[in-house]
């Protein structure tokens, strides 16, 4: 059992990597979601075209292949990435593509009367987006963003394929070294669950905070 | 006669195959209070929305404050206005909507200060002070920190009026601002508008189904039907001795529905 605490430490080190991947990947995903979602709604056809291309491509291909590209192929073009960088990039771009459709949908579901009120108040397109449309749309995005962040968390396990020692990778190391299977995997199962619960709790709290006094969007 | 502040000249507007405004022309004098009445679907809202640049036009021209609204003069001819020109022209016009269209995520005070801060570069404190004066005028000062969802329809509409006034437009457009309200809330909004009419020299265009209010409020009444002006004149003429058959029929219906005019 004294030994097990050493192995637990290995797994916790992995958990730290998983957390890092999740947080950084979510940041990239958020940025890409807004770029992609706003891009889809741009006045300029070529921006719409770029955004659509990004979204379709990353939703239409596998996260494994995207990860291999980031890690093995980009160096051939002179862009060497560390395993962590490659993992963050692949996960962020992949989940960001799903998030972009959420951003677009939420923006489009803000009633057109809100846009018209902005025109009547002579706001510019950017002021309208920044002060009126996005704050209302963001509340609508949150629940799905929460789900996407959890998907991203679960997806982080793929990085063990490029030998990044995340939680899943470490559990396999422990299994190989101890021959013990149930205990390491039970540990990471619980840890994944704790992380995802933390994410959904945080999102729900944020939702409640933002939704205060906002019932009936057609005010 | 004074140079008109609005000159509508031969304007036509279609939605697909539906021709909503047909070769419409009329002028509005500075400071004039104009009521637009007529059956539903006759194009009254559309003309206000065109003035607010929420709808484009298919033909004709509109001048506001001596300048083309939907066009720009270019080498002796007219070309369609760009966004910059529209932005400049919108500063002269404000609009109050039937369904208020307040910003639900902002407080009453923020609803009123947002546009002055963003579009006129007003300082936060100045904007607040002016907003509070306006909110006092519409009787909503004590609700300054409330969110729209906590207000009644009449209160929302009074805030919406203050919000439009905060940009100090020369022209205000009111589109059936009481028709979404419970009957007992109509009067509080009409009172605000009466005060505005008395105390300011703003030009006001009012689309309404409240005939007795239109009677008191307006200097001139336009009766619309089928995208055209059928009859126009001072309220005393239109409401007590309308000449056109269609005006008579319309007013008869209104009276039959129980309204005083
Ligand atoms: N965006 C639109 N698309 C299609 N038809 C419209 C649109 N807006 C208004 N209309 C039609 O134009 C006509 C005039 O509408 P409107 O100006 O709202 O009339 P009013 O305000 O006098 O009731 C109506 O037949 C209406 O259905
Ligand atoms: Mg109407």
Quick take:
The complex is a heterodimer of chains A (219) and B (261). Helix content of chain A is 79%, strand content 0%. By secondary structure, chain A is mostly helical.
Structure write-up:
The complex is a heterodimer of chains A (219) and B (261). With 219 residues, chain A is mainly alpha-helical. Chain A has one domain (10-217): Orthogonal Bundle (MetI-like fold). In chain A, 79% of the residues lie in helices and 0% in strands. Chain A has eight helices and no strands. In chain A, helix 1 crosses helix 8, helix 2 (45-60) packs across helix 4 (83-108) and helix 6 runs antiparallel to helix 8. The longest helix of chain A has 39 residues, at 2-40. The radius of gyration of chain A is 21 Å and the shape is flat. The mean pLDDT of chain A is 92. With 261 residues, chain B is an alpha/beta fold. Chain B has helices at residues 44-51, 83-90, 108-119, 124-137, 153-165, 183-199, 211-217, 235-240, 245-256; strands spanning 6-15, 18-28, 33-37, 59-64, 67-68, 71-74, 77-80, 93-96, 171-175, 203-207, 220-225, 228-233. In chain B, helix 5 (153-165) packs parallel to helix 6. The A-B interface holds A 113-114, 116-117, 119-124, 127, 131-132, 135-136, 139, 213-219 and B 52-54, 87, 90-91, 93-95, 97, 99-105, 114-115, 118-119, 146-151, 156, 163-164, 167. Residues 15, 18, 20, 38, 40-46 of chain B line the site of adenosine-5'-diphosphate.
Give me some keywords for this one.
heterodimer; A: 219 residues; mainly alpha; MetI-like fold; 8 helices; 79% helix; B: 261 residues; alpha/beta; six-stranded mixed β-sheet; four-stranded antiparallel β-sheet; globular; binds adenosine-5'-diphosphate; binds magnesium ion
């Amino acid at each position: 059992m004294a030994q097990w605490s050493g192995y637990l430490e290995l797994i916790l080190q992995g958990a730290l990597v998983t957390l890092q991947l999740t947080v950084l990947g979510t940041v990239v995903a958020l940025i890409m979601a807004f770029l992609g979602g706003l891009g889809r709604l741009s006045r300029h056809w070529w921006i719409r075209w770029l955004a659509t291309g990004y979204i379709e491509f990353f939703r239409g291909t596998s996260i494994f292949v995207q990860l291999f590209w980031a890690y093995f192929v980009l160096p051939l073009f002179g862009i060497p990435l560390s395993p962590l960088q490659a993992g963050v990039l692949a996960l962020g771009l992949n989940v960001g593509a799903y998030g972009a459709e959420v951003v677009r949908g939420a923006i489009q579901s803000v009633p057109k009367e809100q846009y018209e009120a902005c025109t009547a108040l002579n706001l510019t397109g950017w002021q309208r987006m920044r002060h009126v449309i996005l704050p209302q749309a963001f509340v609508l995005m949150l629940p799905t963003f929460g789900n996407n962040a959890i998907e991203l968390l679960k997806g982080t396990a793929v990085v063990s394929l490029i030998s990044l020692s995340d939680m899943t990778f470490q559990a396999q190391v422990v299994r190989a070294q101890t021959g013990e299977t149930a205990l390491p995997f039970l540990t990471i199962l619980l840890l994944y669950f704790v992380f995802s619960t933390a994410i959904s709790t945080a999102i729900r709290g944020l939702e409640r905070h933002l939704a205060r006094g906002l019932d009936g969007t057609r005010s | 006669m004074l140079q008109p502040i609005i000159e509508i000249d031969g304007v036509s507007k279609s939605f697909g195959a539906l021709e909503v405004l047909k070769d419409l022309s009329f002028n509005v004098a500075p400071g004039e209070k104009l009521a637009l009445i007529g059956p539903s679907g006759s194009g009254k809202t559309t003309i206000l929305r065109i003035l607010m640049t929420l709808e484009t036009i298919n033909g004709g021209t509109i001048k506001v404050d001596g300048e083309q609204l939907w066009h720009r003069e270019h080498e002796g001819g007219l070309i369609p206005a760009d966004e910059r020109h529209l932005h400049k022209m919108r500063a002269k016009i404000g609009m109050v909507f039937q369904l208020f269209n307040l910003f639900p995520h902002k407080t009453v005070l923020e609803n009123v200060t947002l546009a002055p801060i963003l579009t006129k570069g007003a300082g936060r404190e100045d904007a607040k002070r002016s907003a509070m004066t306006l909110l006092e005028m519409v009787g909503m000062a004590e609700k300054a920190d409330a969110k729209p969802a906590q207000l009644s329809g009449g209160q929302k509409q009074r805030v919406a009026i203050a919000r439009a006034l905060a940009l100090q437009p020369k022209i205000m457009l009111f589109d059936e601002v009481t028709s979404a309200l419970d009957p007992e809330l109509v009067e509080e909004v009409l009172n605000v508008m009466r005060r505005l009419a008395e105390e300011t020299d703003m030009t006001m265009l009012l689309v309404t189904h409240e005939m007795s209010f239109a009677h008191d409020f307006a200097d001139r009444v336009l009766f619309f039907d089928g995208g055209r002006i059928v009859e126009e004149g001072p309220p005393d003429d239109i409401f007590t001795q309308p000449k056109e058959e269609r005006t008579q029929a319309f007013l008869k219906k209104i009276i039959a529905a129980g309204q005083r005019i």
